[in-house]
Amino acid sequence: MLRNSNGVSRLDILDWLKDPAAHFPPQRHADLTEDGVTVRAVAAKLGVSRKVAGTHLGLLARLGLLRTKRIRYRLYYRRDEIRIAEVARMFEKGW
Prior knowledge:
Protein name: ArsR family transcriptional regulator
Strand content: 5-15%
Radius of gyration: 13 Å
Number of helices: 5
Shape: globular
Organism: Streptomyces hyaluromycini
Strand order of the largest sheet: 1-3-2
Largest sheet: 3 strands, antiparallel
InterPro entries: WH-like_DNA-bd_sf, WH_DNA-bd_sf
């Protein structure tokens, strides 16, 4: 699924995570930039369930585009800039 019913794509999620402080509310137990954002925050922004948001984030993490960090009982997601740059170079070369 490239776009959900609200017209938001996984590329939009990656874009939001470039500057999470501009797109997500502050979190109590983690820094948005250093630690990332929770499934709950992404679900709220997308207007979908946590399960659906978790599916999107999980796919992006399995592809290596996102890194995860566990703090207390929550998993936080942030961009893996090195991997994203590698993928971008592959597409530039005509993969």
